[in-house]
Amino acid sequence: MMHLFINSLAASAGGGLTYIRNVVPDLAATPDLRLTVALSPGLRQHFGDLTNVVFVESQASSFRRFWYEQVELRRLIRRSRADILLSAGNFALRDSPVPQILLSRNSIYTSPDFYCDLRARHEYKTWLDTHARAVLAKRSIRWADVTVAPSEAFAAELLRWTGVNVVSIHHGFDQEAFTRDSTPLRAEVEEQINLAKGSLKLLFVSHYNYYRNFETLFRALPLLREFLPGRSVKLLLTCKLAAGENPGVYHPEAAATLVKELGVADMVTELGAIPYTQLHHLYRRADVYVTPAYTETFAHPLVEAMASGLPIVASDLPVHREICSDAALYFPRFSPQDLAAQIAELASSRETQERMVKAGSGRAAGFSWKKHTAELLALARSLLATAA
Q: Disulfide: which of 2, 171, 297, 383 matches 99 by Cβ 3.0-4.6 Å?
């Protein structure tokens, strides 16, 4: 029996939270596998009664967490008698007492666009902090026995960055689990969506951050009025553009000001955070999924959108093409004009919509959490055999 220790202390929002929420139950159901999971206290509630999993809860700030991981976590791993360490938060344990698999899934460390964006916003503290984290992330890839990326495109990017070969294992999707919760959306959210009835409803699932490139999307909205005269367009956001409403260090106030300056406040609906288990209700109410992100590693919402029958308009990134293929229309990542033109083309062609929905259904079916965990465990067993 193999004992896997998962360090998921960094999982708090976005893709990291989606990953842990889906992978831990699948691993817990695997025969001949013991599981210990280190996580923040707020995350424990998502796993219910997984009695065959030992959860180790720890609350710490990011820098204190790094110290905790490098010192205290080492003791916990030895004490648990684990065979393999899975570091799920971009940073590896140096001199791990057991073979270590690192999951690297944060592309801002390798993105020139992100550093340029921070300088343009005069976010020099975040710029320095990101550079410092990038140094640790780069060293972590060398500290780990194997590094895993969630897409081939990002694995290739990490190879260029570090010179170290990285394994690509796609993240997954579970249609049944994703749509299992029948709890309706909050009444105020339902009311906001109902106000958009009859409009072309664009959906973007993300809390506010800089690398998701909200501003390019906002600048495309007044152009859509020109491209689709007489047609109402509503952009549904799963965040609020206000201070304190989003995780992380990102400041949405300038984006909120931009919406007003562009005169598109009537086109933007800020729904606020939607529980992951209820997102399927929102996808089904939308007409087009759109993402203008300028850097990405996998993008779970793209798979969720394809599985929900939505055509997609996405920034032209290698990762987006790898995930969506023919199920999306693409545009240069900083071009509001091309973004608006692609949305207008899609909205004006029923044939294109049907073709993309069909392609998306086939693409989504190829992503599976069970397949992901099976490949991850095969890698772990290979490492263990080599170590033995």
A: 383
